[in-house]
Amino acid sequence: MTAPKIVTARVGVAESWTIDTYLRKGGYKGLRKALKMEPAAVTDEVSTANLLGRGGAGFEAGRKWSMLRKAEPVYLVINGDESEPCTFKDHMLLENDPHQIIEGTIICAYAVGAAQAFIYVRGEFALGIERLTAALNEAYEHGAVGRFVFGSGFSLDVVVHPGAGAYICGEETALLESLEGKRGYPRDKPPYFPAVIGLYGQPTVVNNVETVSNLPWIVQKGGKAFAALGEGRSTGTRLFSLSGHVNNPANYEVEMVKTTFHDLIYDDEYGGGIRNGNELKAFIPGGASAPWFGPDQVDMPLDQDGVGKAGSMLGSGSIVVMDDTTCMVRAAWRITRFFHRESCGQCTPCREGGGWLDKVMRRIELGGGRESDLELLLDVCDNIAPGLSWPPQKTTICVLGPSIPSSITSAIKMFRDEFLIHIKDGGCPFD
Amino acid sequence: MARLNGDNTRRAEKLLELYPHKRSALIPMLHIAQEQDGWLTPDGIGHVAELVGLAPAEVYGTASFYDMLFTSPVGRHLVSICTNLACLINGAGELLEHAEERLGIPPGETTPDGEFTLEEVECIALCGEAPCLAVNWRFFGSIDTAAFDKLIDDLRTGRLAEKVPPHGTLCRVRRTVGLTTGSDGQ
Lengths: 431, 186
What we know:
The complex is a heterodimer.
Chain A: H1 19-24, H2 29-35, H3 39-49, H4 61-66, E1 75-80, H5 89-96, H6 98-112, E2 116-121, H7 126-142, E3 157-162, H8 172-179, E4 204-208, H9 209-213, H10 215-221, H11 223-227, E5 230-231, E6 234-235, E7 237-244, E8 250-255, H12 261-266, E9 280-284, H13 304-309, E10 318-323, H14 328-342, H15 348-365, H16 373-384, H17 400-403, H18 405-425
Parallel strand pairs in A: 1-2, 1-4, 2-3, 7-10
Antiparallel strand pairs in A: 5-6, 7-8, 9-10
Helix pairs in contact in A: 2-6, 2-10, 3-6, 5-7, 14-15, 14-18, 15-16, 16-18
Chain B: H1 6-17, H2 26-37, H3 42-52, H4 56-63, E1 77-82, H5 85-88, H6 92-103, E2 116-121, E3 133-135, E4 138-140, H7 145-157
Parallel strand pairs in B: 1-2
Antiparallel strand pairs in B: 1-3, 3-4
Helix pairs in contact in B: 1-2, 2-3, 3-4
């Protein structure tokens, strides 16, 4: 049986971003049903669904909502600051189904008792911001947002808030700082959860765009129907951003666990195999922060816990496929450069270590590498994330720093010879 | 190149009403200032500072953290080429080289006629159509060198004016409602 399309049912439908299309395709029915339930009953359905956060950390949404400190007001913040390299699912949802995000936001606000919600959208997503703003205007006019939603006793205001270009603002405490009009500096932990101290010091739920996009379906069909999909803790469907050297790079919504990396990469209905019939060399299973996998791990199911046990993560749901023409030193260097560039600069191991690693990777790729460089790289990585274990140990306020070593340690472990050839030949063999 | 004009001042003041704390309106307000002048002028920053009740230095300190906010002039078209992993392994390096040649400038610089600023950027979330780029944050996927040349021609001649507004214009849709719940909303 093919799994239902939960969050992408309207993607590809003409004018899918308008309220006319949304209503014609069953929009706002989940919200109407939710308003007839007790808020706690809505949370219960989401807990039964075992909806795991789709932003990267994979925390249970229902549990997050239940952890709120008892204080007024409660704020809801939706994280649409998608910037993890090679992740492009929220970008698609924002442009193609903004009403689904708005409906999910309202359902969540109702469940947690928030009277104001902010949808923080990555600033670069201009079209997404325009469509979401237009959709929000429509939703107010329709009575789905504002005073006495659909004639109920529940009232809510929603604000679309644009970011201004900073990867770190995807980290939830940095996002809150940014929403408060400041530099996007992640906050010290503890407190670990915005549910305790969040926006303006108030209890705050921060959920990802894809996470709340699931809510209209869960409320309508019930948490059990959602939990019947997938297996174990990985329930429902999930969006995976497939990119790199596949024939059909795109976002695919698939049932968790029942689908494997191999299915996604090779099946005709998904990736359609490696371009030019080339061989798979390696793939990144969950965003730039994730340790890499080799061809021997391609049969692994898309299972959050399984991938975690195998030493990596599903993370942001981005899978990058690299074929045998790829220079792994260059690939790892590019990711390292990204993290160095995006470090907010608060913590020394990340700010300085990232720059150091960037420079050493650069000189190896460009032909100036030294034999001692591999040990140097691993030593610097070890200073950022002591022990180089998975999940990584932290020496920094947030996880950006400890994410830097993943690509370097993976590349050295899997392709040590390639590094040595670069160093010995004084240049890149793929040039 | 000045303080916010009348219409933009009203837009900025309306933003203040959307947030429990004034300072939250800062970044959206800076987008308005950048829409007006193409970049954040000292006068624009000063006016925004007045509106949110901060010192200009605090506004500058926040603005300088964010990649999209420019405190020095940029071209009418900001061409942002992604070279992150999915694009890199699909020819982004060659695309960037071609762009540098075609525009005659390295990343970070503006053409003498003020038409184009070129920049190399991190992932812009269009990886299904790598290599990709954005012009004033309007996205273009599957860009080879021929497509790049055509794009530049279309931008120069104004054929893409509808899709690509001048640099700084983020959102052309205005919010039509204020906050409606009030303090007794619950």
